[in-house]
Amino acid sequence: MSTYIAQNVAALQAYTPGEQPQDRGIIKLNTNENPYPPSPQVAAALAAFTAERLRLYPDPNASALRRRIAEIHGCRLEQVFAGNGSDEILALATRAFVENHGSIGYFVPSYSLYPVLADIRGVEKRPVELAPGFTWQMPAAYRASLFLLTTPNAPTSMMYERAAVTSFCRTFDGVVLLDEAYGDFAPDNFMDLALAPHNTNTLVMRTFSKSFSLAGLRLGYVIGPVPLIEALYKIKDSYNLDMLTQVVGLAALNDLEHMRTNTRRIQATRARLSAALAARGYEVLPSATNFLFARPPDGDAKKVFDQLRSQKIFVRYFPGPRTGAYLRITIGTDAEIDALLAVI
Ligand SMILES: Cc1ncc(COP(=O)(O)O)c(C=O)c1O
Known about the structure:
Layout: H1 7-10, E1 27-28, H2 40-48, H3 63-73, E2 80-83, H4 86-96, E3 103-108, H5 113-121, E4 124-129, E5 146-150, H6 162-171, E6 175-179, H7 191-195, E7 202-207, E8 220-223, H8 226-235, H9 243-253, H10 256-279, E9 283-284, E10 291-295, H11 301-310, E11 313-314, E12 316-317, E13 327-330, H12 334-343
Parallel strand pairs: 1-11, 3-4, 3-5, 5-6, 6-7
Antiparallel strand pairs: 2-8, 7-8, 9-10, 10-13, 12-13
Helix pairs in contact: 2-9, 3-9, 4-5, 4-8
Bound molecules: pyridoxal-5'-phosphate.
């Protein structure tokens, strides 16, 4: 049977998403979702949406949504690509910017989907180990066709130095996609690099899944030079964004203040949890995201993971030499964090 399956797919280690338990009694701090509901304008847009509209295909170019994104970032519509979650955009980037004999680079540890996308595409992987302390390190004369760079990084939660990112984007001979899934929780971001007039190779991507509380919707966008954006448009599915997603996404963008208020609440809870874990002897990495990456005093993160799980509190544990001593804890509501602290 397997002779019908492409070799790279037969050999593929598929990506494992964080668990989505159906049991409602669980405190879910394992997939970096937002604990607060999306804007009331999202609820209003859903309530006003009539089933009759679904008779027609959606706008293939998601123009109204992209126009609003362009307005927010002060760029042209042609510089914006909107996708079915950032994950779709990442997959399209591996097809648009990488030849069959090309390669895909990324830091280790970072978003564990990147190597899987390279394997699906059947191209060479060029991982770069972060320095001790999960800080920036790039070998001299490093090359790849496409570099996928999570900033702030996941699962480490840390920012890189602006100078390192800027200089890398300027000198790298390939496309750099800065994955700012957690950018709204960070003190700084790199959207200016995507919008710089002489930029030819740098894209900045955002998602609605975290700061906008819309992980269930599947919407992300990427901004950058027109030729790169046009390349993504050439290869996307005709109707990659359904009508409901376009309507709801636009409603969320019309209430940025709601997103910002939730973001500030999460940042405050983040500071509280960080201090409480540090007081319990944890090493807590400085977070610019909606999660913490923290090492228990004895380094036995798996034990704490199991302990929390037995109390129906789900966090994320990534086994492996670099990450196995840490837990990744999504910032929940204050009550959820209190429940977590009661167990730890
Ligand atoms: C770094 C990073 N990029 C992208 C994504 C996926 O985002 P989306 O829900 O928009 O596909 C995630 C989700 O956890 C992420 O951590």
